[in-house]
Amino acid sequence: MSQGRPQPVPQQPDLLTVDSLRVSFGRGIAENTVVRSISFSLRPGQCLAIVGESGSGKSVTARSLIGLAGRYANVHARQLSFGGTDLIGLSDRAWRRIRGTEIGFVLQDALVSLDPLRRIGKEVGEGLILHGAVSSREEFAQRVIALLKLVGVPEPETKAEQLPHQLSGGQRQRALIASALALDPRILIADEPTTALDVTAQAHVLALLEETKTRGKALILISHDLAVVSHVADEILVMRGGEVVERGTAAQIFRDPRHPYTRQLLDAVPSGRPRGSRLSPSTIVRSPKQQMQLPLQSLPKSRPILLEATSLVKRFKGPDGTLRAAVDGVSFELRSGETLGIVGESGSGKSTMARMLLALDEPDEGAVQFAGRPWTTLAERERRARRRSLSIIYQDPLGSFDPRWTVGRIISDSLSSDVETRRKRQERVIELLDLVGLSKALLDRRPLELSGGQRQRVAIARAIAPNPAVIVCDEPVSALDVSVQAQVLDLLGYLKDHLGVSYLFISHDLSVVRHISDRVIVMRRGRIVDNGATDEIFRNPQSEYTKSLIAAMPRLVRDRRIGHSATILEEGIA
Amino acid sequence: MMGSDAVRIVVQHPIVWFARRIFSGVVVVWAAATLAFLIQCMLPGDRAQIIINVTSGNVGPASSAELAAINAKYGFDQPLAVQYGKYMLQILHGDLGESYQQHRPVAAIIAEQIAPTIVLAIAALLIAWLIAILTTLFIAGRDNIWSKLLNDAQVFLATVPPYWLATILLVLFAVKLGIFPVIGGNSPIGLVLPTLALALELSGFFGQVVQNEFTRVLEQPFVTSARARGMSDFGVRLRHVLRHAALPGITLSGWALGKLLSGAILIEVVFARQGLGGVLVAATSSRDVPIVSGAVLISAGLFVLVSLIVDLTYRVVDPRIKLT
Predict the structure, then answer these.
(1) A418 & A542 share domain
(2) Are A53 and A139 members of one domain?
(3) Rounded to an integer, what is the distance from CA A179 to the centroid of its chain?
(4) Of A254, A325, A572, B208, which has the fewest beta carbons less than 10 angstroms from its beta carbon?
C-alpha cells in the first residue's frame, strides 16, 4: 500500500506514517471535507509542526491520529499506521491501547482541558490507573509527583492535591502535558500548547517540549504561531483550508518561504516587523466613502492629559482570606492622541486597573481624573453623561455582545442619542462599519454568524460609535489568529490617525504592545516596574523583570542552532 | 479600612455561614408558624362553632353559653396579639395545639404518622435519582433507537400526574398481575408501587435536566482529554461527566423533596397507606384546623432542613465552592 514519497534516507524507521489523509464530516451532499490529502511521516526525536489558522484543519488532522476526530467524522487514508499497526478502522478497544500509552495528546486550551472537579494529581495520573501501570496508592502518588516534577510544576506535593482553578495557566498547561506523558508515550501531540499563556510560561512550555524531543520522543506541534514553532520544529507543514500549501524543513520555511500564504503568516508576526509598520497585506482598511462627522484632528504639540491615575490601590480577598492588593499604588497619565501600552502577565493587575479607569470598580485608595476633572470620585449619576467619552474593547467580543442582537442593533445601541432619526442612525452605523472595513451586508447578522476577526471589528465599531476620546483595549487581539491579529492592529493604528482617539492598550503580548504603543508601562504584582517610551523600554529595560520578559518573548528564529537552550530563546532584539 | 476587612473575613468563615443558614431557617419557620396561626383565626366561620360541630357531629348553631365556654377554654376571647404570643410560646415548647376531633396533642398525632410519609418520600427521591442516572448514563449523547425511546419515555413520565400513574400501576401490577399487594400496609413489598408512582414522574424530570447537562459536558475538552488518555466511553461518562451533570439535579432535589412530601399525601390516599396523608385529608374535610396548621409548620421545618442538606451535598460534589 505504501507509496514511497521522495524522502531523505531515514536513520530510524518511521514511527507514524500518514499518506493522503482525508477527513470529512457528514455524508452525501452535506459532506464537508475539512482535511484533504495530507501526508507526512514522523521519526523518533523529530518534531513536526503543523501551522495554520483556525479552520485550516490542523486540529482535526491531529485528532485523527488518535481516532478522536469526532463521532461524525469520516477518516480516510491510503496509509495511516503507527509502528506497523494499521490505524484505519481500528476498534475502539484497540484504539484505547494506543491512546495514552503510545501516543500522548495535549489538547488545545489547557484551561478547560482538565476536569474542574478533580484534583490535579488524579487527573495527571489517570492514565497510570487506566492502563494498570501502578499497583498501589503509594506508587501512584510517587509517580504523579515525579511527573509533575518532570514538567516543572513547583511544589508538586501541594499542587497534586489542588483543583485546576487553583493553578496558574502555565501550571495547568504543564500538568496537562504531564498527564499526556504519564505512560511515556513514543509520540506526543500538542495542540496549541502555548496559546493563552504568558511569555514566561510560554518559554517554559517550549523548553519542556524541546526537552521531550531530546529524550527521543517524536513530537507533533500544532500552532497558528510561526514564532512559537520556530524554536522546536524540524519540519513544518503549513496548512490552509484543509490542504498543505507548503512543507519543508524549519530552516527552509523561515529563510525562503515559497508560498505567498506562508510569507503572509511570517509577515503577520509583530516581532518580525518594524514597529508601527503595516502587518496585513491587502488594504483591508478602506478609506470611508464620505467624510465622517468626526473632524480629522491635528494634534497640538503639547498634548493635554486625558486620563490621570494617582496612587491607585485596589485590594481583594485572597483564597486564604487575607487581603491582597491587586493594584498597589499605580500612577500614570495618558495624553491625547497617544497609545499607552500596559504589559504584564496574568495576575499583574492590568485588568483590575482597567476596571477602575472605566469607573466600573471603585479604587480603595487614589483616584482617576478624566480630562482634568474628577472621575472615580463622582457619583455614578454625574458620571453617566461622560461615560460615552470612554470606550472599551474586550478580548472576547462574543461575550460582550447580546447573542440575539444583530450587528446593526449592537452598534446603533452605542450611538449618541443626538443622532435622532432612525434613518440617520442607520446611515451612521453603515459609516462605522465601512470605517472598520466591514460590508453593510453584515447589518442583519448576529454575532455567532461572524468570524473572530469580524466580531472584533464590530466591537471596535461599537467602541468608536459614541466618538470617545479614550478607548481602553483589554487584550483585544489575544484570541485572534496571527493574520487576523495583524489586520486588527492595522485597523486600530488607522483609526488612531484618522479619529485622533487615544488608546490604553492592555496586553500580555510584548510584541503586540511594542508594535502599537508610544509609551509602555510594565506591571508586576500590581506595581509599575518600568515606564517609558516604547523604544527606550525595549532597548534599555530598567527592571530585571522587564529584561526577563523581553528575553522570553517568542520571536521568529530564522537560523536556529541545534541544541540551544530554549529558555534563553534569543538574545537581543532585532 | 482594615477594621471592615477584618469583619469581612470573620463573616465569610464557614461557621458563620452555618450560623447564618440556621438563623434564616428559624426565620422561615417563624413565618410559617405565623401563617399557621393566621390560618386558624382568619378562616371563615366562628372557631368555637366549628369546634362544637366537629366534636358533636351536629351541624346546627350552638347556644351562646356553649360558645362562651369554648371561647374561654381555648382563649379565643382574648385579643389576637395575646393569642399569638401564647401560640408562639406553645410552639417553643413543642406544643402544636390539640386536635379538635381527637382531643390529642397535634404533635403526637403528626409524630406517629409522619415516619411512613418521610420514608415514602425519601425512597421515591432515591429511586428517581437512580432511574434518572442509569438512563442518562446509557442514552445521553447517543443517537440510536434506545436513546430515542428512553428519552421519549422520560418526557412522558415527567408530564404524567402521579395519581393517574398510581392508579394505572395499581390496576396493572396489583389487580391484574397480582405481583404487589393492593393495600400494602407498611411492609417493604407494599412500598414498591407507591414509591414508583411518586418516583417515575420525578425521574423523568430529573432525567431531562441531567441529560441536558450531560450532553453539554460530553463535548467539553477535559472529556476529550480523558479519552485521549485511553479511557473508555463508559469510563468517561461515569468518572468525568456524571459528577458535573448531577449538579443541577442536586440543586433541584430540595424542591423535589417538598414536592414529594405533598405528592406522598395523595399517593397514600390512593394506596390506602398509613401516613400523614390520611390524617391530613380527614383533618381538612372535618376542619380540624390545628392538625393542618401543625403540618404546615412541620413541612416548613423539613424544607429548611432539606435545603441545608442539599447545599452541603452540593459543596461535597463541587469542591470549588466555598461556604460563603
Answers:
(1) yes
(2) no
(3) 23
(4) A572
Residues of B in contact with A100 (CB under 8 A): 228-230
Contact A109 B221 (CB under 8 A): yes
Residues of A in contact with B243 (CB under 8 A): 117
Map grid coordinates 466591537 to a residue: A459
Tell me which DSSP letter residue B182 carries: S
Please tell me chain A's helix, strand, coil percentages from 3-state DSSP, rounded to the nearest 5.
35, 25, 40
B196: Cβ contacts below 8 Å, ≥ 6 apart = B127, B169
Does residue A567 lie within any of the structural domains? Answer: no
* Domain coverage including residue A323: 305-552
Hey, what CATH class is B106-317 in?
mainly alpha
Q: Take residue A528 and report the three cell numbers written for it.
A: 509599575
Per DSSP, the three-state class of B193 is: helix
- Show residues of chain B in contact with A165, CB under 8 Å: 320
CA A43 – CA A64 distance, rounded (Å): 18
Name the CA radius of gyration of chain A, rounded: 25
Domain residue limits, chain B:
2-92, 106-317
CB atoms within 10 A of CB A327: 31
Residue A156: inside a domain: yes
Are A324 and A344 members of one domain? yes
Q: Which chain B residue's Cα is nearest to A92?
A: B232
B12 CB neighbours in chain A (<8 A) are 317, 321
Q: Tens-of-pLDDT digits for all 324 residues of chain B?
A: 445 556 655 666 678 878 888 899 899 999 988 988 887 777 777 778 877 877 777 777 777 888 888 888 878 888 888 889 988 888 888 888 888 888 888 888 888 888 888 888 999 999 999 999 999 998 988 888 988 999 999 999 989 888 888 888 888 888 888 777 776 666 777 888 888 888 998 999 999 999 989 999 998 889 999 999 999 999 999 999 999 998 888 888 888 888 888 888 888 888 888 888 888 888 888 878 888 888 888 888 888 888 888 888 888 888 877 644
The contacts of residue A357 (CB under 8 Å, 6+ apart) are A307, A309, A368, A390, A472, A504
Determine the residue among B4, B13, B222, B316 to mutate to test chain A binding: the one whose Cβ has the most chain A Cβ atoms within 10 Å. Answer: B222
Do A245 and A391 fall within a single domain? no
Phi-psi region of B63 (alpha: psi -120 to 50; beta: other; left: phi over 0): beta
Cell numbers placing B290: 390545628
Chain A partners within 8 Å of B220 (Cβ): 112
**What phi, psi does A340 have (nearest 5°)?**
-105, 120
CB-neighbour burial class of residue A59 (10 A; exposed 0-12, middle 13-18, buried 19+): buried
The ipTM estimated for the assembled molecules is 0.75
Instruction: Among B12, B222, B233, select the one facing A115 at the smallest CB separation.
Output: B222
Q: Which of A125, A159, A184 is the last residue of a domain?
A: A184
Residue A99, Cβ density class (10 Å: 0-12 exposed, 13-18 middle, ≥19 buried): buried
**Surface of B (295-324) touching A: CB under 8 A:** 317-320
Q: Is A300 exposed, middle or buried (0-12, 13-18, 19+ CB in 10 A)?
A: exposed
Q: What residue has cell string 503543523?
A: A50
A465-483 in b/e form (b: 16+ CB < 10 A) is bbbbbbbbbbbbbbbbbbb
d(CA B324, CA B318): 14
Partner-chain contact A176 B229, CB within 8 Å: no
Q: Are residues A437 and A520 in the same domain?
A: yes
What whole-number distance in Å separates Cα of residue A329 and Cα of residue A364? Answer: 10
* CATH number where A532 lies: 3.40.50.300
Domain membership of residue A558 (yes or no) is: no
Total domains, chain A: 3
CB atoms within 10 A of CB A92: 10
